[in-house]
Specification:
Blueprint lengths: L33 H24 L1 H25 L5 H45 L3 H10 L1 H10 L3 H5 L2 H28 L1 H9 L7 H40 L5 H12 L5 H16 L1 H27 L7 H44 L1
């Protein structure tokens, strides 16, 4: 009988296999297999739940990041304006950063003490204004029944009503420290975003496919310019409201509280829709408590000024930054306020403008091409 031949190895005799050769890859997994589909689906659901839970937990931090980015986008037009004068970007950023820090220090040193003194005067005069309200017959009837004036007077003159708002002296101190810390974080993040905005944009644009990268870059730059134009425009509009109020209050005889009230008007004017009205109501109420003639002058002034702001100042300042219909502005502001409060209302309009622009440039164009 002949002996069966033994199978020879694939490699030649005496040839050692390459240790770096890991063999040919096997066939890919069947993506339609029930186990694969179920496993990937369950893993995706768990990852989504984990991400949403952590996003909710760090919502405050994300809010600081978003606010810082919007402020940096608002300062970016100033950087680009300096760049247009032949200055390199890093030097333009340095100039803007120094200007911002100087403005913050000047505000803290020169304006804050004045505002604090005037707020203290308003608080001290509040009981006298409440006494004047008691001369109104209707208010007297309500006060006799519910003692409203006395309760408000005791609350204001107690000296610790601010502490009560924040939950006691310790809570008030923690709230002040928290506000200062958040302000410092926003300032630092704004400076980082402003200095690295160009690099950050380029890194994000590279995530898009090469065939669409140019269009994504154009759309992204348009959105950032729109956000920056809105933020800087809102600051200009608020400054107009504050400066005009400051001059008017000095003219009509409320110079004792002019700086504090003008600051309140400028701060509230940033809030879309209702901010300017709230500021006008606060100033007018204090003016009526001081002298009814000053109050009437405030009513006339703010009625006229708000028309000028709505139909002259705001359209001229915002014409090149945001193009949002009135109905969309109202809906966006209400939705943003419901979701994120005052910050949401501030960010709603540029966000709505960006969504409308993307809808026109992407979805509508695609529908028109069909």
């Amino acid at each position: 009988m002949t002996r069966p031949e033994l199978s020879e190895p694939d490699d030649e005799v005496g040839v050692v296999a390459d240790p770096d050769d890991l063999g040919e890859p096997g066939p890919p997994l069947d993506h339609k297999a029930p186990f694969y589909v179920g496993f990937i689906g369950a893993t995706g659901a768990l990852v989504a739940f984990f991400l949403l839970s952590n996003i909710a937990a760090i919502g405050g931090t994300l809010m600081l990041i978003v606010v810082s980015f919007f402020i940096a986008a608002g300062l970016n037009p100033s950087v680009e304006w300096i760049e247009g004068r032949g200055v390199r970007r890093r030097y333009a950023v340095a100039v803007v950063i120094v200007a911002v820090l100087f403005a913050v220090v000047l505000f803290l040193v020169a304006i804050v003490p004045v505002i604090t003194d005037q707020v203290a005067k308003i608080t001290a005069n509040a009981p006298d204004w409440l006494d004047q309200l008691q001369q109104n017959r209707k208010i007297q009837e309500l006060d006799d029944e519910y003692q409203i004036i006395d309760k408000i007077k005791d609350y204001v003159t107690a000296g610790d009503f601010l502490s009560a708002i924040f939950g006691g002296a310790l809570g008030f101190g923690l709230a002040v420290l928290g506000a200062l810390f958040n302000g410092f974080i926003v300032l630092v993040l704004t400076l980082y975003f402003l200095s690295s905005l160009q690099t950050t944009k380029e890194a994000l644009y590279k995530l898009a496919p090469a065939s669409r990268r140019d269009r994504v870059t154009r759309l992204g730059d348009r959105i950032i310019r729109s956000v920056g134009g809105y933020v800087s425009g809102a600051f200009v509009v608020a400054m107009c409201a504050g400066i005009s109020s400051l001059v008017f209050l000095f003219v009509v005889g409320l110079g004792e509280y002019a700086v504090a009230l003008a600051f309140v008007v400028a701060l509230l004017d940033v809030i879309p829709m209702i901010g300017a009205t709230i500021g006008a109501v606060i100033v007018t109420a204090i003016a009526f408590a001081e002298d009814y003639r000053i109050g009437i002058a405030c009513v006339v002034f703010y009625l006229v000024y708000q028309q000028v702001e709505n139909y002259v100042i705001y359209p001229r300042v915002m014409s090149k930054s945001v193009d949002v219909p009135g109905a969309v502005t109202v809906i966006a502001a209400l939705t943003g306020a419901a979701l994120l409060g005052v910050v949401g209302a501030l960010l709603a309009i540029p966000t709505a403008a960006a969504i409308l622009m993307l809808t026109r440039e992407v979805f509508v164009r695609r529908q028109d091409a069909r």
